[in-house]
Specification:
Rossmann fold; four-stranded antiparallel β-sheet; globular
Length: 268
């Protein structure tokens, strides 16, 4: 297994966030992590990335326990695309990407021509070559998200964590970035664990899904098997339904109860 989360629990002070979370993912897999706000999705990603230490349980990447690893060692195994991106300095987009190679570059050294060429290639791979020498702080939130994806790819890790990467993207770019992620997962044989709020994106792009509610995993496994009316209702509320299109694609929609467009109450 490329990523193994073994029975971890986490709390902030005396407030529990989640308990007894276990997860196993193979290389070449894109897994959607779903749950309502406050379910513990972002905290779980931070634990996997070693930014937070669970008070019990273990996390293994490619068979290696990350508990006592340095940040540099973890950076060689896990890359991250966060929800919100900002920079206090006016770096160019290509420089933002190059920073992800810090674990490969010796202290007090500058990126080599080979590294810069590789960064430019990754920008091309993500379709944003035109942004290479634009100031990162001057581009839109959606463009920044694409730069951060390029940055994560440049890091060349076996595991990539993405926290709501579509939050600033329009409809076309949401599917563009998800399609790109899916292609790269297969091409590079990596693991992607991605938090998403849109169940339709999970249905369309994710091989597997993990559903969180109140700090516990309600269901996990192959997407087609998990994304059903009953399972989704238990996590997201009883005001949704799954419809299968003629092409066999499951589409999740709100469920109306009358002609005025009122919805059923959301289960807590």
């Amino acid at each position: 297994m490329g990523l193994v989360v073994n029975n971890i629990s986490m709390k902030y002070g005396k407030t529990p966030v989640f308990s007894n979370i276990s997860l196993k993912l193979d290389s070449g897999t894109i897994c959607g992590l779903m749950g309502r706000n406050g379910a513990g999705k972002t905290t779980l990603l931070r634990c996997i990335n070693g930014l937070l230490r669970p008070f019990c349980g273990e996390i293994f990447i490619m068979g290696k326990n990350i508990r006592n690893m340095t940040r540099s060692k973890i950076a060689g195994l896990i890359s991250v695309v966060p929800q919100i991106n900002s920079s206090p300095f006016s770096f160019s987009c290509v420089d933002m990407v190059l920073m992800a190679g810090v674990s490969r570059i010796k202290s007090w050294s500058s990126p080599s021509k080979k590294e810069r060429s590789k960064a430019e290639k990754v920008l091309e791979e993500t379709g944003i070559t035109h942004l290479a020498y634009r100031a990162f702080n001057s581009i839109s939130g959606g463009e920044q998200q694409l730069v951060m994806l390029a940055r994560a790819l440049f890091q060349e890790t076996p595991v990539m964590l993405l926290d709501e990467p579509n939050s600033h993207l329009d409809f076309v770019n949401q599917h563009r970035i998800m399609s790109l992620i899916k292609q790269l997962v297969k091409k590079r044989n990596i693991i992607v664990l991605i938090t998403l709020h849109d169940p339709n994106l999970v249905n369309y792009y994710c091989d597997e899904v993990v559903l969180l509610k109140n700090g516990s995993i309600v269901a996990s496994g192959k997407t087609k098997a998990i994304m059903t009316d009953n399972t989704l209702a238990s996590v997201l509320g009883n005001n949704i339904q799954c419809d299968v299109t003629k092409k066999g694609i499951c589409v999740v929609t709100p469920k109306k109860i009358n002609d005025q467009g009122n919805f059923l109450e959301v289960a807590q």
